[in-house]
Design goal:
single chain, alpha/beta, Nucleotidyltransferase, domain 5, 18 helices, extended
Length: about 450
């Protein structure tokens, strides 16, 4: 329990000292814990009458600003500790730590403390970075401005327009250098708001732009390079000797059939969606309007509009099987001959197999099929995998990645040109070889690849 001993109190409205006590009451305050005990402070305070008859507040309570805020239920030092805990950890982790420190508090209260904290004071920025960020991914985007010298966020703008960015830069005339992505709106906003500032396109965005162009080339020309690459793989495969088919002397009536090699109805549905998107785009509808009319996501609509031929659906990775650990043993026993699916099932069960009989029989059925030169062909790489290999330094690539890139260079001239342009640009940026940029832009503009035409044109404008 505590009480205030001063004889007078100051009116918060007119700042007049008063000795006239109106009444008394008790405030219950939570305070910092002591040892292993939670502390509750009972503070006896007085209400005073203001001596100024014209004052708007005739009755007031004596204040203790260094101890507790008006109407607060916890002391100022406990409030500060919990607020700093929330700023460092967040809502739920901060509430858990406070609970362990004998200062229980809910996560929502910690979040309110964080929202009440004043904005930090930043010195005048000199070098800033501008990029877009998502309030809600795929729906609402704004602009984030970062002080690159101190690594702190300066502001979050509500949209990505040039006018909003120009207004912010006009309020901060000390900005000399702006690092941005290659969006035209940001470039225009910087020219309007800070005409003397140096605009810098950071190398991550430059490299991403070129790699995106490579992906577009690979997707657009997949109908040409994938069959050619498949033919090269077939030619590289050795022709194995035909294997004898060992009849199953004890066939089981419920053997599982092989799965269907394709799903034509899914392909037809994708083709219908693809044609519908292009038909609506031909009428002049925007991407947002096409999305509303078809129910297809905007990213899928953009992907369909970027390609002239519908690409194949992404291949799903093969699922792991409980039989994988026993397949080498089954193949070895099958090659020895004179075994049946039932015998193999019994033998793998003795070695710890806990799966179904049908799984073993399906694998044996697959082994019964005559081996052809096309049965062991590796899966063709996807465009994203090819882009990942190109992004690696030549000395860091694995052997298979180097072999795949060499095949791609041989099978298709357009893909080979795109790979060379991408690799040259990445090496140029890594080594900071500025004099080589003009030659690269000229080669990209002279190529037959439209995505690289757009890259060269945009970089030339920058």
């Amino acid at each position: 329990m505590a009480s205030i001993t001063t004889a007078t109190a100051t009116c918060p409205s007119c700042q007049t000292a008063s000795r006239r006590i109106h009444s008394r009451y008790t405030r219950t305050l939570h305070d910092l814990p002591w040892a292993s005990f939670t502390m509750t402070l009972l503070l006896h305070v007085r209400r005073f009458r203001c001596l100024v008859s014209t004052c708007a507040q005739q009755i007031f309570t004596e204040r203790l600003p260094s101890v507790v805020a008006p109407f607060a239920r916890r002391t100022q030092r406990l409030y500060t500790l919990q607020q700093q805990c929330g700023l460092a950890l967040g809502g739920i982790p901060g509430a858990l730590v406070s609970q362990q420190c004998l200062s229980p508090i809910s996560r929502t209260t910690i979040l309110r403390f964080i929202q009440r904290s004043p904005d930090p004071l930043h010195p005048a920025p000199d070098v800033v970075g501008v990029d877009d960020w998502a309030f809600r991914k795929g729906q609402t985007y704004g602009t984030i401005i970062v002080d690159l010298e101190r690594g702190t966020v300066l502001d979050l703008l509500p949209d990505r327009t040039s006018a909003t960015l120009a207004a912010w830069l006009a309020r901060h005339p000390t900005v000399r250098i702006v690092s941005r992505d290659r969006a035209q709106a940001y470039g225009e906003g910087i020219r309007l708001g800070a005409p003397d500032a140096v605009q810098v396109a950071d190398r991550w965005h430059l490299m991403k732009t070129v790699v995106t162009a490579l992906n577009e080339v690979l997707v657009q020309q997949a109908a040409a390079w994938e069959p050619a690459l498949q033919a090269v793989l077939v030619a590289e495969q050795p022709v194995p000797a035909p294997t004898a088919v060992v009849p199953d002397t004890d066939p089981l009536p419920d053997e599982l059939p092989l799965p269907s090699p394709g799903c034509p109805h899914r392909r037809a549905r994708r083709e219908a969606r693809y044609l519908a998107v292009h038909s609506l785009a031909a009428t002049g509808l925007s991407i947002r309007a096409i999305t509303a009319a078809t129910g297809i996501s905007r990213n899928t609509v953009r992907r369909y509009l970027r390609v002239a031929v519908l690409p194949d659906a992404a291949r799903r990775p093969r699922r792991m099987s409980v039989l994988d650990a026993y397949k080498p043993f089954i193949q070895e026993r099958w090659a020895a001959g004179s075994v049946t699916a039932e015998q193999l099932f019994t033998e793998v069960c003795e070695r710890g197999y806990a799966g179904k009989r049908s799984t073993v029989k399906a694998f044996v059925t697959h082994l019964r099929q005559p081996t052809t030169p096309h049965s062991a062909l590796p899966t063709l790489p996807r465009p994203r995998a090819i882009s990942g290999w190109i992004c690696q330094r030549a000395a860091e690539r694995t052997g298979p990645a180097t072999d795949w890139l060499a095949r791609l260079h041989r099978v298709h001239a357009g893909v080979s040109c795109a790979l060379r342009l991408t690799e040259r640009f990445l090496d140029m940026v890594r080594e900071r070889q500025r004099p080589l940029l003009e030659d690269w832009l000229a080669d990209a503009a002279a190529s037959d690849l439209k995505p690289f035409h757009a890259v060269a044109r945009g970089m030339g404008q920058d």
